[in-house]
Prior knowledge:
The complex is a heterodimer. By secondary structure, chain A is of the alpha+beta class. Helix content of chain A is 60%, strand content 16%. In chain B, helix 7 packs across helix 8 (204-220). The longest helix of chain B is centred in the first third of the chain and has 25 residues, at 9-33. At the A-B interface, strand 1, strand 2, helix 1, helix 2 and helix 3 of A face helix 1, helix 2, helix 3, strand 4 and helix 4 of B.
Amino acid sequence: xxxxxxxxxxxxxxxxxxxxxxxxxxxxxxxxxxxxxxxxxxxxxxxxxxxxxxxxxxxxxxxxxxx
Amino acid sequence: xxxxxxxxxxxxxxxxxxxxxxxxxxxxxxxxxxxxxxxxxxxxxxxxxxxxxxxxxxxxxxxxxxxxxxxxxxxxxxxxxxxxxxxxxxxxxxxxxxxxxxxxxxxxxxxxxxxxxxxxxxxxxxxxxxxxxxxxxxxxxxxxxxxxxxxxxxxxxxxxxxxxxxxxxxxxxxxxxxxxxxxxxxxxxxxxxxxxxxxxxxxxxxxxxxxxxxxxxxxxxxxxxxxxxxxxxxxxxxxxxxxxxxxxxxxxxxxxxxxxxxxxxxxxxxxxxxxxxxxxxxxxxxxxxxxxxxxxxxxxxxxxxxxxxxxxxxxxxxxxxxxxxxxxxxxxxxxxxxxxxxxxxxxxxxxxxxxxxxxxxxxxxxxxxxxxxxxxxxxxxxxxxx
Lengths: 67, 386
């Protein structure tokens, strides 16, 4: 299985991605679940600091993300 | 976004700004929204607390490939949850960029992850006991399938699905402003938005004045290369979607709609479709009954205010609605009668982190954004102490 990124203005294939195997997908969920168990204990103020970093990170790459 | 799904670059930049806004909004507000609420009961002490649920699966679409993910992720992560993203298969680069933003922000590794899977693999994820809930923005079909599977597993879902938003123009509307805004509301994201206005319901008394103004506005918008800064309408996201839209236009014309603008597939490469206006649209035509996910405006005439509201509500969808009148008391009275998750008076329907967002009827259920959105994926827990 693969996913393709295609430019709709030209039809050009930009990049092809391979879907994860079932073992890799299980790993993604396991890592996410482990992260949740840690994160749920983090106080709001620390969560908010990370979220403000995400704000800055989104903005920093604005041209790349829009392009 | 421009390269992968054709969004005009200026609109992509605005989308990124909105993502940053929702991060800040929930960084500032989440603690207050989820603060413990004391309650007076027969207990010595009783209160309500809001605990995180766990890992939430987010199935997201390509049309606002950053915003729709951020408006889920910002409240969900601030509430203490984790997120696994199954993004639309045509925007994998966007998915990876979003994952990078959250990783680089210092969240625990994997708290927000992208799974580059096909739609056929979603059912397996819903069944996974570590996934506790699902949010989906997308088509009715996708929403129905996800809700069915999640229902079988008794897992909560929030669904934000399609819309066929009415844009009602009453006889006392500012017609010039209404026509300009109508074009903006129809052409946002090259027409590919669930909350784009799709059915323009105009009362007979002003129809002959409004329609030419609307045609002029639609005709004035520049279609072209999404990377060019002056472009206002880019290509549709995929050729097959453009072709589906054209079939809806042709079928509506076959059933009596009048083509006043556009409605023809341009020659050359790319999934382009021009701003199109169909007049004399009525029930029984795809332009009225179905969601048109592209730059196609359907104009419907109403006898009067009551008829306009009846036509607005005569839809299987109920996401947003716009209402144009200079009489605010009239607007507030009618807003109560319109079957939609949001009514915007003298403006275009838009999402805003401070306002709940979502629909009724076949537009889905649950709400995103505001305090209502962050409380969708929490355990609202009562604590009672004798």
